[in-house]
Each structure stands twice: as structure tokens, then as C-alpha cells.
Design goal:
- It comes from Volvox africanus.
- This is U1-type domain-containing protein.
- There is one protein chain.
- The protein is an alpha+beta fold and about 270 residues long.
- Among the domains are: about 70 residues; about 80 residues, no CATH class.
- The strands form 2 sheets. A 6-stranded mixed beta sheet has the order 7-6-5-4-3-8, with no helix packed on it.
- The longest helix is centred in the N-terminal third of the chain and has 54 residues.
- It binds zinc ion.
- The site of zinc ion has 5 residues, from loops.
Length: about 270
Amino acid sequence: MTEYWKSNAMHWCDICKCWMNDTKAARLNHERGAQHQAKLATKLRDMAKKSDQETKAKAFNEAAMSKIEAAAKKQYEQDRKAAEAAAGSWTWDTECSYYYNVTHRWYYDPKTQWYYGGEPTPEWSQSPPLPAAAMFGVAPHEGGPVPKGTAGAAVAAGGASTSGRLDSLPVATKTVQRVLAVPKHPLADVGGYRAPTTGRIGGHMGAGVEVEGGAGDGGNVTKRKREEQHAKAGGKGGTKPAAVSAEEAEALARREAARQRVAQRTAAGFGYL
Ligand SMILES: [Zn+2]
């Protein structure tokens, strides 16, 4: 049986940040020591202080928040009351059988859902110049044929179905996607060197622009030649190019043989043969 090293169990004192043997005697000895006692007392004091501070801060924050909330609530109530006062309210006028808004001096007919008012000459209107909050159904109303707390549009005796009140209310906005229409080049399907010369790709550099006539500048000669060949081949309506002559066929065969020789030699050089 081979011997092997085994460490003693050790105990870590988290207060003094030190190790000691994990035996009852060693632990007791350490915990009774003056250093450990002093550090323990300091730690307890710090913890108490910290928790005290936290409690104080929490209480302070809560007080501040409740103060802010109270102020906001008060402001909200004030604003609401002001808005209500500005909107006015509709009361049923038994003499003319219309609702009347004293604040804005407009009448409302629940049967037709038209408004009557305006200065200097009052007129009938479906979309009176009233704030949205003052319209009938939005602002509160009292008495009359329309029950309290309803908009009136649904209840009002089956009159006009289109309501001016609805038109003047804020309408939900509709998102319209804008599509940029790039004109399609007549040769776009051909691709390659005949790619579209307008649009995002190629067009800016003039890529694929065919040179017409003019043998002047020499830079484009080869390109033009190729294009001409292409045009010739395409011009015959997809027929095969002219048959190669015997001389040309022989040259091609020789070229192919040479290519194969080179390939063989290369393979041999790499040890493949
Ligand atoms: Zn300790």
C-alpha cells in the first residue's frame, strides 16, 4: 500500500481572515483570543450602524416619495377640474328640445347629432369648432333623452349614422410604407455585362454601358471586340457559332494534348503516378 499525502481539515475564520486546524480545541482557543474578540465586536458594531443607516434612508425616501405623490395628485385634481370647467357640460333645454353647453354656447340635437351655434351668425354643423373634450358624449350631460354616461351616438334615436362628432375626434394614425420604384432596365433579365445601367448597382460606374461605334480610343478595343462577337452570336437567334476549320481544329487538339502532358508531368512531380 503506497502512502499518500492527506491534508488536515482546516477551519477558516471569516472575521479574522485566517486559517486554523479544524479541531475543537484550536477553534475554541482562537475564538477566546483577544484579537478575535476585538474584531468580532467591531464587526457587530458596524453591522448595527449600517442597518440603522439603511432604516433611516428608507424612511427618508418614503417620506419624500409620499410628499411628491401627494403633490402630483393634487396637481392632477386641479388639472382635471380645470379641464372639466373648460369643456363645460351639456344640459337639456326643454323649450327647444336640444342640449345646450353654457360654456361654449352651442346647441346639440341628439336626434340628428348636429350642433347649432357659432358667432356672430349661428349655423348648423356636424363638426363645430369645439375642443374635443367639450363635444357631446365626451363632456358630461344632464337630462334629456340620452342616458347619463353614454356617448349618445349609439342611443340617439336612429338619425344620421354619420356623426360629425366622430370626425372631429383624433383619428388613429395609419402607417404608410413608402416604396421607391426603380424603373426596370429592359435588359435586366439578361444580367452579366448587360446588367441594368440605372438603379443602385452598376449604374453609377457606367458598368455594362455598351460603346456605340467610334474606334477612336484604344482602351476599350478588346472589350468592344468581345461585345461584337457576343452580339453576332446572339444575333443569329441562338444558332451555334460557325464550324471551326480543319486547321483550327488541329491547333485545338494540339493545345489539349499539351495541357494533358503538363498535367501528367505535374502529377508525376507530386508522386501521384
Ligand atoms: Zn477569528
